[in-house]
Amino acid sequence: LRECSIQHSIVGVRSRLEYGVELKDTMMMGADYYQTEAEIASLLAHGRVPIGVGQNTKIRNCIIDKNAKIGRDVIITNKDGVEEADRPHEGFYIRSGITVILKNATIKHGLVI
């Protein structure tokens, strides 16, 4: 955890949250393993997303399954109030208005859900 805001949320074991992350009403299940700082730096240098939540990402009313990779500057708030959506190819579902990030999913940098 690095300078994050976490309200009414659960953060699981081996979770990685970068600077400026905001979690509210969210359950993050964590990860099965750690990535080293060198692995994370290499992934970021190649434009890929490491396990955890990237810088300045805002997440509300969400369930994040294990080993999810959420990029920087992502917004997951379901601001349009969608009740049901199936987007497994994008790494998420929405059920009863709650966004569910799938196990091992990758949410690319800058995506808005």
From TrEMBL:
Enzyme Commission number(s): 2.7.7.27
Top-level division of the source organism's lineage: Eukaryota
Gene Ontology MF annotations: glucose-1-phosphate adenylyltransferase activity; nucleotide binding
Catalytic activities: alpha-D-glucose 1-phosphate + ATP + H(+) = ADP-alpha-D-glucose + diphosphate
Annotated GO biological process: glycogen biosynthetic process; starch biosynthetic process
Keyword vocabulary terms for this entry: Allosteric enzyme, Nucleotide-binding, Nucleotidyltransferase, Starch biosynthesis, Transferase
Top EC category: transferase
Pathway: Glycan biosynthesis; starch biosynthesis
Membrane-spanning ranges: none
Pfam families per record: LbH_GLGC
Similarity comment: Belongs to the bacterial/plant glucose-1-phosphate adenylyltransferase family.
Name under which the protein is recorded: glucose-1-phosphate adenylyltransferase
Source species of the chain: Opuntia streptacantha (Prickly pear cactus)
